[in-house]
Amino acid sequence: GAVVSQHPSWVICKSGTSVKIECRSLDFQATTMFWYRQFPKQSLMLMATSNEGSKATYEQGVEKDKFLINHASLTLSTLTVTSAHPEDSSFYICSATIIAGQASPELGGYTFGSGTRLTVV
Amino acid sequence: GQNIDQPTEMTATEGAIVQINCTYQTSGFNGLFWYQQHAGEAPTFLSYNVLDGLEEKGRFSSFLSRSKGYSYLLLKELQMKDSASYLCAVTDSNYQLIWGAGTKLIIKP
């Protein structure tokens, strides 16, 4: 089945520093990558949608200058949390689809990375 | 607005059957997903329904009624490892994925 590899699994950083999270689709080409944030005991919150080779579309309330998304190839997308603060501490998850904007049920729907637990101290 | 409702928490006994309901109101419909998520982990795919009816996959089954905007996930022969959150998600007419808040399922011996 389709696999998305997400790194790092967890990271602790100092306030004011930047953190980069990578998601790679290992055996398929991810036309669209979704980035989510999940706070404890809450559901997934979509932050942005990125299509390969174009600028990401950010959800309302998500600062695009703070959460930099790069989807330079069909197999790699990165999220950089710039000047991180304690309130940015959360679980960040990427998800990919093979067809632009659509789920691929035969691949297990939206294929998720394993998530990154970010703690900003 | 777009809305997905599911119970916040449910409790069931090991070996029993539990049904988790999901109702949705979205602008268009292009399919409904159920995902399982253990604490601190990413969601894993359970099922996908786009047509009315019941889809059975081992101990798990998912039902959809598009006219009622309703789905349920049925878990049989519950095991302790089934303790997790179960997320209902719908793709709307723009293929935007709308997530429910999830149902935390607690299994007791």
Describe the structure.
The complex is a heterodimer of chains A (121) and B (109). With 121 residues, chain A is mostly beta strands. Helices cover 0% and strands 49% of the residues of chain A. Chain A is built from no helices and 11 strands. Chain A has strands at residues 4-7, 10-13, 19-25, 32-38, 45-51, 57-58, 67-73, 76-81, 90-97, 111-112, 116-120. In chain A, strands 2, 4, 5, 6, 9, 10 and 11 form a 7-stranded mixed sheet that branches. Chain A has a 4-stranded antiparallel sheet with strand order 1-3-8-7, with no helix packed on it. Chain A is globular, with a radius of gyration of 14 Å. The N and C termini of chain A lie far apart (37 Å). The relative contact order of chain A is 0.33. The mean pLDDT of chain A is 86. Chain B is an all-beta fold. Helices cover 0% and strands 57% of the residues of chain B. Chain B is built from no helices and 11 strands. Chain B has strands spanning 3-5, 9-13, 18-25, 32-37, 44-49, 53-57, 60-65, 70-75, 84-91, 97-99, 103-108. In chain B, the strands form 2 sheets. In chain B, strands 2, 4, 5, 9, 10 and 11 form a 6-stranded mixed sheet that branches. In chain B, strands 1-3-8-7-6 form a 5-stranded antiparallel sheet, with no helix packed on it. Chain B is globular, with a radius of gyration of 13 Å. Chain B starts with a strand and ends with a strand. At the A-B interface, strand 10 of A face strand 5 of B.
